[in-house]
Design a protein that fits this description.
The protein is mainly β. The chain is built from seven helices and 72 strands. The protein folds into eight domains: 5-95, no CATH class; 112-281, no CATH class; 298-362, Immunoglobulin-like; 375-438, Sandwich (Immunoglobulin-like), CATH 2.60.40; 446-665, no CATH class; 675-758, Immunoglobulins (Immunoglobulin-like); 762-920, Sandwich (Jelly Rolls); 924-1011, Immunoglobulin-like. Strands 39, 40, 41, 42, 43, 44, 45, 46 and 47 form a nine-stranded mixed beta sheet that branches. Strands 13, 15, 16, 18, 19, 21 and 23 form a seven-stranded parallel beta sheet that branches.
């Protein structure tokens, strides 16, 4: 049987004869091409021969019993002797078989689908023969075949006796008697034209037995469900290749073959009597012998091929003319895609012989759309794909971009069409895809090492200062570095992760062999963060950093400082956030755009191990708080100029991990927040924030963790908010001159996002071997905001005993970012101390410390206001005026040149940059009064400058008499002031007057005016 066998009771097969089908010299008593379905009963016994089963599903072969003895072979679902089962009579030793030698389970020994197709065609061909059978009634009289009697006799003539009968007439006959017995020369074929569902009440066949059954065939050529009923045996073969055969209402035997789509039996026996004659050769008459059809197996739509056959006088036909037609000459023309059977039939007086050939009609090729990114970075790669197989990639302009196997390389700026061409026997087709080569710029080096996701006090300030001293503030000079070579993991990958250093997990080489890798690990963070190991690798092209992987090892906690938080502190804003599936892992992916205009595409995740588990866990979340702490955590942050490059690096890291152990998500979590800070920036005394809300109307609160200054403790306060549905929201929170603030955003009491924002820190630097720091103190100043000034917050005091130097330094911005102060002309502050103060404006772009711009001023123990024109700062090397467009810090250094240890103090208060020029500010301190017109008729203007808002007393005195002629209270503003005076009614004669301005801060120089009244 071609598919499954259901055992639903006890049964026996091959009782007397195993048949003629052999496999390796063994006769097969039972062959099931599908599987065994064990439903009920005890056993299905195979009395003779061997067994073959195609599908082993739920079956087990016992070549030996449980004791290892060669008992009869069994096929069961469980133990030996379990029920139901298939039971052979012979053991494996007698049959010479085993699990490796001619085993029970073996597929496709018979091509049932092809065999059934052949038999369906044969059944239809047999049905087309004209009736030749000679029939009479019980009395030997002929009868009208339109009205069959209850009893019918047949006298077989030599050759094939064809009896063509309808299903109704078949059921109307109760007794069918053979006057002479069928044999090899006297064959009976009964062609039954019945309904699709036919209930066959089997007639009583008199005059024959099992020896004659191989020469009788019942051909049900169009029945689809054949139900065998009645009480009589079937003497002959049931040939119903289209039908499901059901034998439930007939308990008699079938002596002959059973050929159908399926067979269901409740009772009765089936005796071995296969139909033996070749109908075309019975008697003296033979059907024509027809050669095979020759020619191609396929044709294109709307094209033609010619088939040939060496047997003459045949007729060509097509099984489906909607797919292909064939003319009398054998020319096949494709109409539509599909497979069609072309037949060639030759007929003689004994019948018709038909041969066939399957022809596939192919369509001209169609090419699917090319998918992938429409851009590729200059010098880098992007991967395109096409669902149509066996195509060839090409570029319309190889000078702009080349392509091999779908991998596009950006060669020069511009656009090109990437073409995918498919050629078949039916033609050529292509699809194109426009791709632009862009200069994607560069990304920041891993050596900058993201830090301030949480307070580090003055550690970042010290780090920036040391970078300035060491000349490492800029991107690395890769051309002077040696390319990176990893330590042995890529050659000893079979090890366990617990013995692996994190730097061994980073890929040395990427797909694009032009990218060179350099080790840029910021090892200084090991002392100021929770990282136990740190490694960063920059992947560069022509000296420009294109990608970075930054990795740390931590214990029982995630790495404290995430790029998402750190870089928003440094002015970056989120421009994209989604998730990506890499090596089967769902990972967080986002993009940040920075103040200088460059963008970075970032993937962050952590791999962790736990002694209680033999797998490596992967976590990837937006919030640090969402990570589950594990014993050892390997934290990765990957950023590059393109999503594809970040994904490739990440994939290689995951592959390294997957080669050591099974990698799986630690838990299912939401990678993406519903509400998050797009950007957040400290702007003077305010926090400016842009919030993206992806929920319906949202309310919640900000939790602010604030430190007022560098030494103060954290104070927590809450600020409620409410956002409209799904939109970007701008807001501003005042923080005065506070040092730093962590802002946590809660929605429905669930933490959604957090940012760390700080003002530039104050810090102190000294040599511990030669200096004892006695006191360092920062205090909030609470100055009034002045529109024309850039105020640098908080006042500081430091005292130390030293014989070398003492340095105060102030970062311009949180995170050590540079600040463009080109709009300002002067620097002002109040200071006191002893010694000479060297002030250095640290430019980010200057590599060598000795090339920075500085000036020196003497200090006094009495606090004094200082006003310095920025042009007064000079460099030992650069003679041009300072261009203060990238100042990251201000350094105040007092050097002890006496050679002996002494006490040094510094106080810096009210530090600011002003848009006013020094000359102008100094002019405001002038105590001169200008009067015009002079001489005057009595009406004139008094013009003077004031360096601040204040109250003055204006007096005009007659010089000759000493009498005060005019008094007026004047409110002066900072800058130029003009007071109009009218004495025309007070003075009648020519007079010389003295004008004075008096204030608590000092008097102006008197000025005289001549008054000549008009008469």
């Amino acid at each position: 049987m071609g598919e499954d066998l259901t055992i639903n009771g006890n049964y026996q097969v091959a009782i007397k004869n195993p048949g003629t089908f052999m496999v390796k010299d063994l006769a097969i008593g039972l062959l099931v091409n599908g599987k065994i379905i064990y439903k009920s009963g005890n056993s299905l016994q195979v009395n003779n021969g061997y067994v073959k089963i195609g599908d082993s599903d739920k079956s087990k072969v016992w070549y030996k019993d449980k004791n290892g003895a060669f008992s009869p072979i069994q096929i069961t679902t469980g133990d030996y002797n379990s029920s139901p089962r298939i039971q052979l009579q012979s053991g494996a030793d007698k049959l010479g078989v085993s699990a490796s030698n001619n085993p029970v389970f073996e597929k496709e020994l018979i091509k049932f689908d092809k065999a059934m197709e052949t038999m369906r065609n044969s059944s239809l061909d047999i049905s087309k023969n004209k009736q030749t059978a000679v029939l009479t009634d019980a009395n030997g009289n002929s009868f009208d075949e339109k009205n069959y009697p209850d009893q019918v006799k047949i006298k077989l003539i030599e050759g094939v006796n064809y009896l063509n009968i309808s299903g109704n007439d078949l059921n109307s006959v109760s007794v069918f008697t053979y006057e002479n017995k069928p044999d090899a020369d006297h064959v009976l074929v009964v062609n039954i034209d019945a309904d699709k569902t036919f209930n066959w009440k089997v007639w009583n066949q008199a005059g024959i037995g099992i020896d004659q059954c191989p020469f009788v065939l019942y051909n049900f050529y169009n029945t689809e469900t054949l139900k065998i009923e009645g009480n009589n045996s079937i003497e002959g073969t049931v040939f119903a290749p289209l039908a499901d055969i059901v034998k439930k209402k007939n308990s008699s035997n079938i002596e002959g073959q059973i050929i159908g789509q399926s067979f269901e039996q409740d009772a009765g026996e089936n005796h071995y009597a296969p139909f033996s004659p070749d109908l075309s050769k019975v008697g003296n008459c033979a059907k024509p012998i027809v050669a095979v059809i020759a020619g191609a197996d396929s044709v294109c739509r709307s094209a033609s091929i010619t088939l040939t056959n060496t047997t003459a006088s045949g007729i060509w036909s097509s099984s489906t003319t909607a797919i292909a037609t064939v003319n009398a000459s054998g020319m096949v023309t494709g109409v539509a895609a599909g497979t069609v059977t072309i037949s060639y039939a030759v007929t003689n007086s004994c019948g018709t012989t038909t041969v066939t050939k399957d022809i596939t009609v192919n369509l001209p090729p169609t090419v699917a759309a090319i998918t992938g990114s429409n851009t590729v970075c200059l010098g880098l790669t992007a991967t395109l794909s096409n669902a149509t197989g066996s195509g060839i990639w090409s570029s319309s302009n190889n000078s702009v971009s080349t392509v091999v196997g779908g991998v596009v390389v950006g060669e020069s700026l511009g656009s090109a069409n990437i073409i995918y061409t498919v050629t078949t026997g039916c033609g050529t087709a292509s699809n194109s895809f426009s791709i632009a080569v862009q200069d994607c710029g560069s990304v920041s080096s891993g050596g900058t090492g993201g830090l301030e996701s949480q307070s580090l006090g003055d550690a970042v300030a010290k780090r920036v200062y040391q970078s300035a001293l060491n000349g490492t503030m800029q991107q690395p000079a890769y051309e002077s570095m040696k390319p990176w070579v990893a330590s042995g993991i890529q050659r000893r990958i079979a090890g366990t992760i617990s013995a692996v250093s994190v730097n061994s997990l980073l890929p040395m080489q990427l797909t694009n062999s032009k990218l060179k890798s350099y080790l840029t690990s910021p090892t200084d963070i090991l002392g100021i963060t929770n990282a136990k190991e740190v490694v960063s690798v920059d992947y560069t092209l022509n000296g420009s950093c294109k990608a970075v992987v930054f990795a740390t090892t931590t214990k029982a906690a995630i790495y404290d400082h995430t790029k998402a938080v750190c870089d928003r502190l440094k002015g970056a804003q989120v421009v994209k956030m989604d998730s990506v599936l890499i090596n089967g892992m769902g990972l967080l992916r986002f993009a940040l755009k920075y103040e200088d205009g460059h963008s970075e595409n970032i993937i962050s995740f952590s791999a962790s191990i736990n002694p209680a588990r033999n797998t490596i866990a992967i976590q990837s979340n937006w919030l640090k708080a969402s990570y589950v702490a594990e014993e050892t955590m390997y934290n990765f942050q990957v950023w590059s100029v393109s999503d594809e490059l970040s994904a490739e690096i990440t994939g290689k890291i995951l592959t390294q991990l997957q080669q050591m152990a099974t990698v799986e998500p630690l838990k299912k979590s939401s990678l993406l927040p519903d509400t998050y800070f797009v950007s957040a920036k400290r702007d003077g005394a305010n926090l400016d924030m842009q919030v993206q809300n992806n929920l319906a109307g949202t309310s919640g609160y900000f939790e602010l963790h604030e430190k007022a200054n560098e030494q103060s403790s954290v104070i927590v306060r809450k600020v409620p908010f409410s956002f409209s549905a799904i939109q970007s929201n701008s807001l501003q929170l005042p923080v005065s001159d506070a040092f730093e603030t962590t802002v946590k955003m809660y929605v429905n009491n669930q933490l959604q996002d957090e940012v760390f924002l700080s003002d530039g820190a104050w810090s102190v630097d000294y040599n511990p071997a030669t200096t004892v720091l006695n006191k360092f103190e920062a205090k909030n100043d609470n100055r009034k905001t002045v529109p024309q000034e850039l105020q640098l917050y908080r006042n500081v005091y430091v005292n130390a005993n030293t014989n070398t130097y003492l340095t105060l330094l102030k970062l311009m911005r949180g995170g050590g970012l540079p600040k463009d102060i080109s709009a300002y002309q002067s620097m002002k502050f109040n200071a006191s101390g002893n010694g000479t103060l060297k002030i250095t404006l640290v430019k980010q772009s200057v590599k060598n410390w000795d090339d920075q711009y500085f000036l020196k001023i003497p200090l006094s123990n009495t606090p004094k206001d200082y006003l310095i024109d920025l042009g007064e700062f000079t460099s030992l090397v650069n003679k041009n005026r300072i261009k203060p467009d990238d100042i990251n810090s201000i350094v105040f250094t007092v050097t002890n040149s006496a050679g002996t240890t002494s006490s040094i103090s510094q106080t810096i208060n009210n530090l600011a940059f002003s848009k006013e020029s020094v000359n102008y500010i100094r002019s405001l301190s002038s105590k001169e009064i200008k009067l015009f017109p002079n001489p005057s008729s009595g009406k004139f203007n008094c013009v003077f400058q004031s360096d601040k808002d204040m109250q003055l007393q204006l007096n005009i005195t007659d010089a000759s008499k000493g009498i005060v002629l005019y008094r007026k209270s004047v409110v002066a503003v900072k800058g130029s002031n003009t007071v109009s005076v009218d004495l025309s009614n007070s003075i009648q004669n020519l007079s010389v007057c003295i004008l004075t301005l008096e204030s608590e801060d000092g008097n102006y120089k008197p000025s005289s005016i001549v008054i000549q009244p008009v008469k």
